[in-house]
Amino acid sequence: MINIQEVIETNKMIEQENLDVRTITLGISLLDCADTNLDELNKKIYNKITTVAKDLVSTGKAIEREYGVPIVNKRISVTPIALVGASACKTPEDYVTIAKTLDEAAKTVGVNFIGGYSALVSKGMTTSDLNLIHSIPEALATTERVCSSVNVGSTKTGIDMDAVKLLGEIILKAAEYTKERDSLGCAKLVVFCNAPDDNPFMAGAFHGITEGDAIINVGVSGPGVVKKALESVRGADFGTLCETIKTTAFKITRVGQLVAQEASRRLNVPFGIIDLSLAPTPAVGDSVAEIFQEMGLEHAGAPGTTAALALLNDQVKKGGVMASSYVGGLSGAFIPVSEDQGMINAVQAGALTLEKLEAMTCVCSVGLDMIAIPGDTSAATISGIIADEMAIGMINQKTTAVRLIPVIGKKIGEIVEFGGLLGYAPVMPVNSFSCEAFINRGGRIPAPIHSFKN
Amino acid sequence: MKKTIITVVGKDSVGIIAKVCTYLAENQVNILDISQTIVQGYFNMMMIVDANETPKNFEELATELEKIGEEIGVIIKAQHEDIFNKMHRL
Questions:
Q1: Reported pTM
Q2: Where do the domains of chain B lie?
Q3: In a 10 Å sphere around its CB, with 0-12 CB exposed, 13-18 middle and 19+ buried, how is residue A330 labelled?
Q4: I need a labelling partner for A205 at 20 to 30 A (CA). Which of A80, A193, A333, A344 fits?
Q5: ipTM of the prediction
C-alpha cells in the first residue's frame, strides 16, 4: 500500500528538485524511404515521419498529466541521412533539401528537435558522406530543429583524421553561417567517437542502423534530486555518499522506466532503452556542478573534481541498472558548460578550464559539451581538440563527443546567449599553440591494440 | 484497475476535505483510503481513489480538481498510482 510519506517524497522531488524525464525520443528508420529521385525521397521522408510520430507529442503530454511528472522534450531521431540520401543526393545542396524536409516534419508533429542529419565515417568517407558533411553549415543555418552529428572514430576502427580535419573547418563555417545568432549552428552539431545507436539526447541522437523500424528511447534526468539527497548526508564518508546517490538514481530511473513503458504501449512502438543520465538545465538547482559543490568542492574544476565525477557516474549507473532491464545510450553525467548554472559559475570564477574539462571526460559519458570558444580559433586547433577527445574515447572504449561553439566576433570572457535549454556561457580560452602540421597529415589513426578482443 | 492518488497540500483551513469529497462524490469517484499529516506546518492529505466509474476523463478530473484547489487556496494534484509504486517498490 502506498503511504503518504512516499507520495510527499515523490512530489517534492518533482516540484522542488526539478525531477523530470528529460526526453522521449522516437527513433524512426528511414532506410525504406531511399529513392533515386530527390523529390520522391523527400516526400517519402516527410510522410513516414509525420505518420509514425503523429501521436508522439499528445501521448507524451497525456502521460505527463496522468503521472504528474514533467516530460521536458519529445523528440525524433532518424537513420543517418548520409545513408538515406546516398542514392538521390549528388551535391551538398541536395542534402540541404532533406534537412528542410526534416525541419518541416518536426514542425508538423510538434517536436522541438529532430536528430540524425548524420554521417558515420569512423573508417572512411563515401562521396555521400562528404556531401552531407559539406552541407552541414547551410543545413543548420537554414533550419530550426534539425540536429547533426558525425561519428569520426571508434575503438574498433581508429580515428578518421581526414574527417577530423574537415570537421574543424565545418564547425567554423557553421559558426560563420549563424554569426548573427551567436553561432548557434554549432550548438546543433556533435562530433562523436564510438557513437551509440540508441542515444535519445540531442544534438547527438540518431536512429542507428542496428535498430528496428521504430523505437522509443527515454532519457532520465535529475541532478537536483541527487544534490538534495546529498544535503542530508553532509560530511558523511564516501560509503554513505555513494549509497545515497545510488538509491536516488534508482528512483529517478524507475520514473523513466514507467514513462518509457507507458509511451511504448500507447504508441504501439517497442521500448528500446533508458539512458541513465544526469542531464542539467540552466535552472538553479538543476546542476551537476552543484552536486560537486555539495560533495565538498568549492567549484567544479577544483582538484578532486575528476574523482567526484567518476564516483557520481558510477553510482548513477549502479543505481539505475537495477531499475531498468534495458539500459543504453550514453548513460552518465552530462557536463555541458552553457546548460549548467554551476558550470557557468565555475568558468567565471576561473576554476574550470578546457583542459580540466577534457580530463573529466575520461570518467563520464559525454565529452566536451556546449563550450564557447573565441571565434578567431583556427580550424586546425578545433580539429586538434576534437582529435584529443576522440582519442580518449577510442583508447578507453567509451563514447566521447565534442560540441564546441567558436563564437564569431566574441573574445575570451564575453557572454554568449543561446536561449532556452541551451543556456548561456562565457567564452573560454583555448591553448593557442599550433597543431596545424599534425592535423594536416591526414589519413587515419589506427585502431588501438584492444580492438583485437576476438 | 488503475487507482488514482489525489494529494492536497497547503495552509490548513475549514472545509478542505468537505469540498474535495463533495466533488468526488458528485463525479462517482469512490474514495478507498484517506491519510493526512501536517508536515513542516503544511496540511498534507492523500487519497487513494477509484475513478473507474466517473464519466469524466482523467484530464477533466485533474483540471477540475486543480480549479477547486485554486478556489480554496491549496494545491490539488491527481496522479496515477503507478509512479509511486514504481519509484518506491521493487
A1: 0.92
A2: 3-88
A3: buried
A4: A344
A5: 0.87
